[in-house]
């Protein structure tokens, strides 16, 4: 079951969904997580017993961060950035103990369907290309498998781009303002840092939700037990008590012989 994770108001526009799996069942049966289709035989490294697969949609408000901090010269984003990530997860896992799990395709690649992405409708007569945003700051451009459908070999962040018209030659003022290499390297890591930060926020939110659910189940269990066996206060201690039942006296009519 896909669970929608509600982020704080300052992350307005970002859509995050999560699905919990067992490692073995995900490998045997695959899964569909929103736009991402994981085929049978997907490999998880390391293979934690329980994990949560996370789907991110950065929408129009946050996707430009990737465009601004990766080298997309000559291309223009025409879809939101979609992310696929995984973390170990369990009722006994603390936020500090969580770690990222790698998702790697099996015989068939992971497919990403952008057909329902809002901005792709503005593309007319142009076939979009698939963009993969790597952790090292590189952007890999590929031809899509079919219209609006990209393929991937692993987890990460993906989007659709089209070739943009050539820019006019830079003026001397623009050349002087050219960003140095170290700033480009630092900037390219912003997208990765954002992804890590969102993962942390997501895991905290899911951890709180799971703990809240466990607490509610415990309260329901206690309420059921208290209903079955009445509890009363003895001093400052709660103690189970049985309901007092008084036997109704019966008058016997008869003669007692001496």
Structure description:
By secondary structure, this protein is an alpha+beta fold. Helix content is 27%, strand content 29%. Strands 1, 2, 6, 7, 8, 11, 12 and 14 form an eight-stranded antiparallel β-sheet that branches. A four-stranded antiparallel β-sheet has the order 3-4-10-13, with no helix packed on it. A two-stranded antiparallel sheet has the order 5-9. A hairpin with a 5-residue loop joins strand 11 and strand 12. The longest helix has 48 residues. The termini are far apart. About 8% of the residues have low confidence. InterPro entries: DUF1191. Keywords: Membrane, Transmembrane, Transmembrane helix. Pfam families: DUF1191 (PF06697).
- Which sheet architecture does the biggest sheet show? 8 strands, antiparallel
Under CATH at level 1, the class stands as: Mainly Beta
Give the helix proportion (percent range). Answer: 25-40%
Share in β-strands: 25-35%
Amino- and carboxy-terminal Cα gap: 81 Å
CATH level-two architecture: Sandwich
Note the overall shape. elongated
CATH topology: Chondroitinase Ac, Chain A, domain 3
Mean pLDDT value: 75
Instruction: Classify the secondary structure makeup into a structural class.
Output: alpha+beta
Radius of gyration over alpha carbons?
29 Å
**Count of DSSP E strands?**
16
Which segments are poorly predicted (pLDDT under 50) over 5 or more consecutive residues? Answer: 172-191
Number of domains: 1
């Amino acid at each position: 079951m896909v669970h929608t994770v509600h982020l704080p108001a300052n992350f307005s526009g970002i859509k995050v969904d999560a699905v919990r799996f067992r490692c073995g069942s995900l490998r045997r049966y695959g899964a569909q997580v929103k736009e991402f289709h994981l085929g049978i035989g997907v490999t998880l490294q390391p293979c934690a017993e329980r994990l949560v697969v996370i789907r991110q949609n950065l929408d129009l408000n946050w996707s430009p961060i990737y465009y601004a901090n990766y080298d997309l010269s000559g291309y223009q984003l025409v879809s939101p950035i979609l992310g696929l990530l995984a973390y170990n997860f369990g009722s006994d896992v603390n936020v500090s103990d969580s770690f990222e799990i790698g998702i790697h395709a099996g015989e068939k690649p992971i497919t990403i369907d952008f057909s329902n992405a809002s901005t792709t409708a503005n593309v007319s007569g142009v076939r979009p290309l698939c963009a993969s945003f790597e952790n090292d700051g590189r952007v890999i451009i590929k031809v899509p498998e079919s219209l609006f459908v990209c393929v991937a070999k692993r987890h990460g962040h993906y989007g659709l781009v089209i070739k943009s018209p050539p820019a006019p030659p830079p003026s001397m003022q623009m050349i002087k303002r050219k960003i140095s290499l170290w700033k480009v390297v630092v900037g390219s890591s912003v997208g990765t840092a954002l992804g890590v930060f969102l993962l942390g926020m997501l895991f905290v939110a899911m951890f709180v939700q799971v703990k809240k659910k466990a607490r509610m189940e415990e309260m329901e269990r206690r309420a059921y037990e208290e209903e079955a066996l009445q509890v009363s206060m003895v001093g400052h201690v709660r103690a189970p008590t049985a309901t007092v039942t008084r036997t109704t006296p019966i008058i016997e009519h008869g003669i007692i012989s001496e």
